[in-house]
Automatic annotation (TrEMBL):
UniProt protein name: SURF1-like protein
Compartments where found: Cell membrane; Membrane
Pfam families cross-referenced by the UniProt entry: SURF1
Keywords, ordered alphabetically: Cell membrane, Membrane, Transmembrane, Transmembrane helix
Membrane topology of the entry: Multi-pass membrane protein
Superkingdom of this protein's organism: Bacteria
InterPro entries linked to this entry: Surf1/Shy1, Surf1/Surf4
Family to which this protein belongs: Belongs to the SURF1 family.
TM region(s), chain numbering: 12-32, 225-245
Length: 298
């Protein structure tokens, strides 16, 4: 009854199923491991951020370059502020227990003792950076040599929330906090990093540090989880289709053994033609009888 499994067609179906099912399971397990790794990294980042809030600040140069380990750590740098290049970073959102508030960052460059400048986000203010009344509330940076302490952050990119990479901003505004965006604004070298000041002066509000890129439960993490489900669904679909084809083929074999299938070949064609001729002849005779009855009634 199951001899059809030995046909070349079913050899191909069986080989495909045997290879596809383990492959789908492997890919689903791999995507699931990627999601679990992102969850573990997110937890580790949260633990590091909690420890960094109470840890002593370290010199800036000892924490560079910024990576997943050093992001969010307290860094300190000494120098003097460049009061001629204070910039506003518009359309930045600050979240708290009451909700989300729209405003702008106040960024000032700190000329360090090593020659390079460090972008320092001194704080956040509510309002519109384009409004003169809101911009007038920005306090002037302190003069003279100062020591700045804050959470270390990596340079922003086009995928960072709130970034305006398209340009077209008014003079004195910056769309993306990065060394690449500052290279044409200031005449000196800039660190490929920035810090958000821990204790900004009033009326500025402290900007909380963001999680390092690739360490949070972002859209990519949930994409891995979605791909996990898709691969396991594919494996189940292959199994379902194999059993569906097997059942249909076995039922067809049973019907053939009982002689229930329509005949094929020249004999079957001849018998079907003869049946059609008989049916046509009966219809012709029935029509002839009706015509005869109609003549008699007339």
């Amino acid at each position: 009854m199951y001899r059809f499994l030995l046909t070349p067609r079913w050899w191909g179906i069986n080989v495909f199923a045997v290879l596809a099912i383990p492959f789908c399971i492997f890919m689903g397990s791999w995507q699931l491991s990627r999601f679990e790794d992102r969850v573990d990294t997110h937890r580790q980042q949260e633990d590091r951020s909690a420890r960094a809030k109470t840890a002593a600040a370290r010199p800036l140069d000892s924490l560079l370059p910024v990576d997943k380990v050093t992001s969010g750590r307290q860094a300190s740098a000494r120098g003097h502020y460049d009061t001629e290049h204070q910039l506003l970073v518009p359309a930045r959102t600050l979240k708290d227990k009451r909700g989300e508030w729209q405003g702008f960052y106040v960024l000032t460059l700190l000329r360090t003792d090593h020659g390079k400048a460090l972008p320092v986000v001194r704080g956040w203010l509510p309002g519109d950076a384009d409004a003169k009344a809101d911009a007038a509330k920005v306090p002037a940076p302190p003069k003279g040599e100062v020591t700045v302490t804050g959470a270390l952050q990596a340079s922003e990119n086009q995928g960072t929330d709130g970034v305006q990479a398209g340009g077209g901003l008014p003079h004195g505004q910056l769309g993306m906090i990065s060394a690449a965006s500052l290279v044409n604004i200031v005449p000196y070298d800039v660190y490929d990093a920035w810090i958000t000041q821990t204790d900004p002066p009033a009326p500025l509000h402290a900007v909380p540090p963001a999680a390092a890129e690739g360490s949070g439960l972002d859209l990519k993490a949930f994409q891995n989880l979605g791909y996990t489900g898709e691969w396991f669904v594919f494996a189940g679909f292959v199994v379902f289709m194999w059993f569906r084809l097997f059942r249909r083929e076995s039922e067809a074999a049973k019907d053939a053994a009982l002689g229930l299938l329509p005949e094929t070949g020249e004999a079957g064609v001849f018998r079907r033609l003869r049946g059609m001729c008989r049916l046509g002849f009966r219809v012709w005779r029935l029509g002839r009888r009706r015509r005869r009855l109609g003549r008699r009634t007339c």
